[in-house]
Amino acid sequence: QMQLVESGGGLVQAGGSLRLSCAVSGRTFSTYNMGWFRQAPEREREFVGAIKWSGSSTHYADSVKGRFTISRDNAKNTVYLQMNSLKPEDTAVYYCAARWIGRAGDSDRRLWSDYEYWGQGTQVTVSS
Length: 128
Hints:
By secondary structure, this protein is an all-beta fold. The chain has strands spanning about 5, 10-15, 20-25, 30-40, 45-50, 60, 70-75, 80-85, 90-100, 115-120, 120-125. About 0% of the residues lie in helices and about 50% in strands. The strands form 2 sheets. Strands 2, 4, 5, 6, 9, 10 and 11 form a 7-stranded mixed beta sheet that branches. A 4-stranded antiparallel beta sheet has the order 1-3-8-7, with no helix packed on it.
């Protein structure tokens, strides 16, 4: 089993920044592509971004492109989501997810069902 633990959420004013972390254990982190998703109340869970196992490729939802940046440190078994210029509509629970690289397809996976492991989520609230 793989364990994923998100942290770094909180309350921030519009225009501010937050950096989320997702610490991974239980599997070889560098053999997993990673994704970030979010879910606002009464809304479907939606794709935010993804990063290849090597960190050499990233993909973003149009709604966050240019504001959010995903990175990873394979030596620390951690993936990050840097969120800048936050908007009230970014308010949601944010989840990280892991997809084994042995599965067919590239790292640009945008459905939560594409991932095998999930964290418990961290709340991000952006006030106007």
